[in-house]
Amino acid sequence: MEFELIKRYFSDIGHCRDDVVLGVGDDAAILSPPPAHELVVSTDTLVSGVHFFPDVYPYSLGHKVLAVNLSDLAAMAARPAWVTLALTLPSADEQWLSQFGRGFSALARQHGVRLVGGDTTCGPLAITVQAMGFVAQGEGWRRSGAKVGDLIYVTGSLGDAGLALKAKQQPLALPKNELDELSLRLTQPTPRVQEAQALNGLVSAAIDLSDGLASDLGHLLQASGVGAVIEWDALPLSHAFRACQQHPAAQSLSAACWQALPLSAGDDYELCFTINPEHQHEMKRRLSQQGFIAHHIGVIDDDIGLRCKQKNGVLFDVTQSGYQHFTN
Ligand code: ADP
Ligand code: MG
């Protein structure tokens, strides 16, 4: 695609960093990782009609494609630094490029991240970002570190994006302000990068929630060779979610659907992590010091699989419920 366009819209995106020896414009970028650190690398693609509605605001899309990648780095406890961007576009719409770039750059600057290269091709709209960050040697979190007796936590709230998606798929007469708030959670999710940094050294295992709590926590449990019980009543719901749930229009969704949203709806991009109970106090201290919130939702045990305890104390099995691309 025209070099002029690349130069105009992608040569100055994000925060200027001293460790970028050479950024956008050559055949490749030259980058200088800090000594005694490990490089953490992750890639995620968003495809039009699969991961976002074709009519989504390009500003939101620029934000989201970066956010989902930063969320993966957060789940590894990495400090984000550099990203590359592969854009496949049906046409070179300058208005679109400019808005997309603004959304991308705003979030990148917020996290001190620089766009250092990419690729631009013509075809059906799809966007791939590769994100790179650092952890001090041996300090990266993994899915595989959870131990029996560890406590399970999630940041933020669950099911907001899922409810917003439902409201886009079928007409629900839910209150407008709340729905706007939920929609923002779907279109411009917040990667929990700072929360992860605050928890450095305390976490035994972590994953970010992209496909739904049940599915993603399930991956963590499987990787760790353990099971868990979570409490239905402990799952954090936002004010907006609760307000919708209590609204008369809530009845157009089944009780089962309301129950499934926080457990199995995707796109939350919250962090789910486990900690040894002895770190709980320090964890709370560090989070509250920075105004962050995490909720205790369950405990790791040695009974393989994931169970959820309902109000009445009855356990139901929620192993493996979540969004899966090749089955749903
Ligand atoms: P080449 O043909 O050598 O691969 P390109 O013409 O694809 O080079 O890209 C030229 C320069 O522009 C490279 O530095 C590349 O990283 C950068 N670039 C291309 N597309 C993008 C994009 N969407 N975002 C950021 N940088 C890009
Ligand atoms: Mg080249």
Proportion of residues in β-strands: 25-35%
SSE-based structural type? alpha+beta
Please tally the helical runs, counting DSSP H or I stretches of 4 or more residues.
Answer: 10
CATH topology of the largest domain: Phosphoribosyl-aminoimidazole Synthetase, Chain A, domain 2
Distance between the termini: 35 Å
Ligands bound here? adenosine-5'-diphosphate, magnesium ion
Number of strands: 13
Strand order of the largest sheet: 8-10-7-11-9-12-13
Relevant CATH superfamily of the largest domain:
PurM-like C-terminal domain
Please indicate the count of domains.
Answer: 2
Largest sheet: 7 strands, mixed
Shape field? globular
CATH architecture of the largest domain, please? Alpha-Beta Complex
Taking Cα atoms only, what radius of gyration do you get, to the nearest Å?
20 Å
Residues in helices, as a percent range = 25-40%
Rounded mean pLDDT is 95
Q: What is the secondary structure topology, with strand pairs?
A:
Layout: H1 3-10, E1 20-22, E2 30-31, E3 37-47, H2 58-74, E4 79-89, H3 94-110, E5 114-122, E6 126-136, E7 151-155, H4 160-169, H5 176-187, H6 193-198, E8 203-208, H7 213-224, E9 227-231, H8 239-246, H9 255-264, E10 271-275, H10 280-289, E11 294-301, E12 305-309, E13 315-317
Parallel strand pairs: 4-5, 9-12
Antiparallel strand pairs: 1-2, 3-6, 4-6, 7-10, 7-11, 8-10, 9-11, 12-13
Helix pairs in contact: 2-3, 4-5, 5-8
The chain binds adenosine-5'-diphosphate and magnesium ion (MG).
The site of adenosine-5'-diphosphate has 13 residues, from α1, β4 and β5.
